[in-house]
Design goal:
By secondary structure, the protein is of the alpha/beta class. The chain is 26% helix and 20% strand. It contains 18 helices and 31 strands. The strands form 8 sheets. The protein has a 6-stranded mixed β-sheet. A 6-stranded mixed β-sheet has the order 10-17-16-15-11-12, sandwiched between helices. A 4-stranded mixed β-sheet has the order 8-7-5-19, with no helix packed on it. Helix 5 runs antiparallel to helix 13. The longest helix is centred in the first third of the chain and has 21 residues. The structure holds beta-D-glucopyranose. Beta-D-glucopyranose binds next to loops.
């Protein structure tokens, strides 16, 4: 070819290419390109300073993007029960915006009590829509720390004591949030099981317990829910803070579980640049400034992952590869969220969200006891109701720490009951009974309620007792609240019994009127010295915006309760294994060290070893109907793997109301070379039945149902031998047993 033609051809091609590359979308903005191509391309265009900027906060809840390249900021919000009001740039205090009031969904304990993964999805989808509408990138929730002690002030933000139940509930929550293009940030990874000394306490726990009890819910959020973010907590494990912990972050999370998202520090949980940089944390928030009484100017530049990190990188003391990995993860997060042009727009305070909150609450409220069918309230026998107790009139959405909200509305229990009672022409009277906590403020959000009452406690009781004598039914609504040392972040409860003088009030009411219902609004178990004298007890949790309506739904029978306890209501604090021997090295720890000597024996794994330890067992919950669990049938056994099969359990509604029952299957290892708990939940299914109707509930099992974690090999292990599958409707109410024989040993690791 003539060299002139060849040359002009090349020039032409170059001009066309450059015109097109100008007009074409840069690769990192082109959503048709694979995610990893975009991430790597964007990363290749960043300077070291830009990468550093991406990985730490610029304000209380945000981090910068890369303005030069049009890569947006990341905005986080609490979580996990509603979208926290916007705060000032550098402070915890609310900014005073008028467009940030939200729907408060029920606390996660209530969600777990639904035993219905569909409710997990509905919850995640709804709160995710609110987060999206409020233009948030990351929702700081859900929380899945296991309920180890009933004194933990943050149990209400978590999903109970059982790793399998929490694992089943968390994954759909995460999926629901993330379908909105908002990242769920699962917290607090891991072993953050108490608030006392939370920033320093070093947890000593054996590997088997770690893997069998404390990690499965996080693993499920990552592997099944595909969470885009996770929050290492404040505490230490194995001598290292969770944010600087190579075993938790590198070996397990990013290694074995293949997590490709972002590990976001809890606020102020990072302590050291040289330790945090190489050990797997990706983003730092909340260090060195609380915006109130401590902090430095330019605090953000002084973050451990800011200028100090850059300095050490420049000095060659830290590896740039780690920074690249962190920045790539943050970019991936941004592409999945802010830069996903196809994500929905979200919505807030919609009728659907209120309906979701009410539905989840209705399915999560647990009817613990109902002698003489005292509930539901029916107009034929009830003309006058007395409601007693502070929690009937106290807003519960303000307080408790970072989950505190500013709600668009909160229907109080008394109001919900009054409104519903009026429909049946029933009269409702209120008496306070006791004064607990009259405060109502958190970070500048106030309830505006005046809860002062100058009567003495004797007078309050006398007035309530007097009113009780004229009532057809007395509904006491008490429990804990969100003030310090109740159900609140930053401190644990001081005692297991109900606070203030509620036990006295309840006893006096029980003596005055035999038709007493105790409704407790708590996120924790408590002792019930009056239980023999109280015919009906309801666990009402903290249920958010629709509290009053959801409680009234159950009290008046518009909703047939179907919630089941996600943790054990033991009789005494000493019936919880960490407290059994009053050993302070087990709780709250000595010299900033807490030793989980009880190992696997958390909740029912401990109480079910000996009868008589519980008031209400894990999994317990009544209905206004009755159910019969029939003879189960084992089927679909896999020819090559006898651990994989289904069991079909016929359930019949033997009562006269439509209602739901939860069939629970626990595995018992008849003989093992290692200690196994007496039983462990491995499958469950919730079924709704009309009166007289029978349906089969299908429960699936696989190798995980029979395995224990072998710390010597770091492998899950199934030993051949005999197992029993125990089927019932509470951990202490087993009505069917199915023997299973496994002939073949199996081992595998999380990384397989
Ligand atoms: C809490 C987190 C929360 C964060 C931001 C911390 O004190 O432990 O759960 O997400 O603050 O508010």
């Amino acid at each position: 070819m003539n060299s002139f033609i060849k040359f002009s051809g090349l020039v032409f091609a170059a001009v066309v290419t450059s015109i097109f590359s100008y007009a074409a979308t840069p690769i990192y903005l082109d959503e048709k390109q694979p995610l990893e191509t975009r991430v790597q391309y964007a990363l290749s265009r960043l300077t070291t300073s830009e990468k550093i900027a991406l990985i730490h906060a610029q304000s209380k809840f945000s981090s910068p993007g890369v303005a030069r390249l049009g890569i947006p900021e990341v905005w986080c919000t609490d979580g996990p029960h509603g979208i926290r009001p916007d705060v000032l740039w550098d402070e915890w205090n609310q900014a005073g915006a008028t467009n940030d009031s939200c729907v408060a969904f029920p606390a996660l304990t209530c969600l777990a009590a639904t035993w219905n993964p569909e409710m997990g999805y509905l919850y995640g989808k709804s709160i995710g829509e609110e987060a999206r509408y409020r233009k948030k990138t990351v929702l700081l929730g859900p929380g899945v720390n296991i309920y180890r002690t009933p004194l933990n002030g943050r149990n209400f933000e978590y999903m109970g004591e059982d790793p399998y139940l929490a694992a089943q509930m968390v994954a759909p929550y995460v999926r629901g949030v993330q379908q909105n293009g908002v990242a769920a940030c699962v917290k607090h990874y891991a072993l953050n099981n108490q608030e006392v000394n939370r920033s320093h306490v070093n947890v000593i726990v054996d590997d088997r317990t770690l893997h069998e009890i404390y990690l499965p819910a996080f693993k499920s959020a990552v592997k099944d829910g595909k969470a885009w973010a996770i929050m290492p907590g404040y505490n230490k494990y194995d001598g290292d803070h969770a944010c600087e912990n190579p075993k938790l972050l590198l070996d397990i999370l990013k290694g074995d579980w293949g997590f490709d998202g972002v590990a976001i520090s809890d606020w102020g949980a990072v302590h050291n640049t040289e330790k945090v940089a190489p050990n797997g944390l990706d983003m730092e928030f909340g260090s060195w400034t609380n915006g109130l009484d401590w902090g430095t100017s330019n605090a953000y530049d002084n973050y451990f992952l800011a200028k100090p990190y850059e300095r050490l990188l420049n000095e060659g003391k830290l590896d740039i590869k780690d920074l690249d990995d962190k920045a790539a993860r943050v970019l991936r997060l941004i592409f999945r969220t802010e830069m996903d042009r196809n994500r929905p727009f979200g919505s807030m305070n919609s009728d659907e969200h209120y309906a979701a909150a009410r539905k989840i609450a209705g399915e999560g409220i647990v009817l613990l006891k109902n002698n003489r069918s005292l509930l539901p309230v029916v107009p034929e026998s009830v003309k006058n109701i007395l409601v007693v107790g502070e929690n009937a009139i106290k807003m519960m959405t303000v307080g408790g720490g970072s989950s505190s909200l500013k709600v668009q509305k909160e229907i109080l229990p008394l109001d919900g009951i009054k409104e519903r009672a009026a429909k049946d022409g029933i009269n409702v009277v209120f008496e306070r009974g006791y004064v607990g906590d009259i405060t109502g403020e958190y970070n500048g959000v106030t309830t505006g309620q005046d809860l002062k009452d100058s009567r003495s406690s004797e007078q309050l009781i006398a007035d309530a007792v007097k009113a009780a004598k004229d009532a057809d039914i007395v509904i006491f609504i008490g429990g804990l609240n969100k003030s310090n040392h109740q159900d609140a972040e930053g401190c644990d409860r001081n005692e297991y019994p109900l606070p203030y003088n509620q036990n006295e009030v309840i006893s006096a009411l029980a003596a005055a009127n035999p038709n007493l219902v105790v409704v407790s609004l708590t996120g924790n178990a408590y002792s019930m010295p009056w239980l023999d004298r109280v015919p009906a007890v309801v666990q009402g949790w903290y249920i958010g915006s629709e509290s009053g309506e959801a409680l009234a739904d159950v009290i008046f029978g518009d909703v047939n309760p179907s919630g089941k306890l996600p943790f054990t209501f033991a009789k005494a604090i000493t019936d919880f294994a960490p407290h059994a021997t009053n050993d302070s090295t087990m709780y709250p720890g000595v010299n900033r060290e807490v030793n989980y000597k009880e190992g696997l024996n958390i909740g029912y794994r401990h109480t079910d070893r000996k009868p008589g330890r519980v008031n209400f067992a894990f999994g317990h919950g009544l209905s206004f109907s009755t159910f019969n669990i029939g003879k189960p049938e084992l089927n679909d056994m896999d020819d090559d793997d006898e651990t994989t099969f289904t069991i079909s359990v016929p359930v019949t509604n033997t009562g006269n109301r439509t209602g739901s029952e939860v069939v629970q299957a626990y595995v018992h290892d008849v003989k093992s070379s290692v200690y196994r708990p007496v039983k462990e939940l491995k499958a469950f299914g919730k079924v709704s039945l009309n009166p007289g109707e029978t349906k089969n509930v299908s429960l699936s099992f696989d190798k995980n149902s029979f395995a224990f974690y072998n710390p010597d090999t770091n492998k899950w292990t199934v030993e051949p031998g005999k197992f029993e599958i125990l089927i019932g409707n509470a951990s202490d109410n087993i009505s069917q047993k199915i023997p299973v024989k496994i002939n073949r040993a199996m081992t595998w690791s999380d990384a397989d």
